[in-house]
Design goal:
The chain is mainly α. It has seven helices and two strands; from the N terminus they run H-H-E-H-H-H-H-E-H.
């Protein structure tokens, strides 16, 4: 009898608590029912700046700062900057800026840092669809030399992307292309000569002409 009374008391207290928090619906949701994302005021949350106020994050874009980031170089290389670099200069830069991640000879440390250099005979003629474990390197799996420059300039070195000068990027591009047997070891690259470099398997790649919202095939 006492046990039954105790259970009944607990149930009564629970129902009472629910009614206080949900206006009597019994399901604890009516306090937020009717609310929508459009009504949500992020500033009004506990610890926020206050209702209808914004967090002091970010700042207006300054054109000069934006220009320093708007550096894309496309496949035709029309955006390539003035400058130049040799294979020898690139070799010295690679040793100090890249080897710690990609290995002294560009062998990489997979999976964190991909192999950059090497033309495995098994991977020639682009058989990657049949054997995806074959090493993908700059020499056998990169469509345009101009976009190699673009990637290095924007994304490398890993610890300080965007810190290399244009001359240094030309030099590193020259070194990596020479080590992959794409250009001569004595080459000097600038905008004009880099545009003329044709990657070995360029024709194996197709332009991505998908429109926003379309699904990949």
């Amino acid at each position: 009898m006492r046990r039954e009374m105790l259970c009944l008391t607990v149930l009564t207290l629970c129902l009472s608590a629910c009614n206080k928090t949900d206006g009597g619906s019994g399901f604890g949701t009516s306090a937020t029912s009717g609310a929508s994302f459009a009504d949500y005021d992020a500033g009004a949350v506990p610890g926020g700046p206050g209702a209808k106020k914004a967090y002091a994050l970010g700042h207006a874009v300054v054109d000069s700062q934006l220009a320093t980031m708007n550096l894309d170089v496309g496949s035709d290389g029309t955006e390539l900057p003035i400058g130049s670099g040799t294979v020898a200069q690139g070799a010295a830069l690679y040793a100090t800026q890249c080897a710690q991640c990609h290995g002294k000879k560009g062998e990489g440390m997979v999976p964190a840092y991909p192999q950059l250099i090497g033309r495995d005979p098994k991977a020639e003629k682009f058989p990657f669809a049949n054997d995806p474990k074959l090493p993908h390197t700059i020499g056998n799996y990169w469509p345009y030399a101009t976009t190699l420059f673009d990637y290095i300039r924007r994304a490398m070195p890993h610890v300080a992307p965007g810190s290399l000068t244009d001359d240094q990027v030309y030099a590193l591009s020259a070194y990596l292309l020479a080590e992959n047997d794409v250009i001569a070891d004595t080459a000097t690259l600038d905008a004009a000569s880099l545009r003329q470099v044709r990657m070995p398997y360029r024709d194996r790649f197709v332009p991505d002409d998908r429109k926003p919202g379309s699904r990949a095939k």
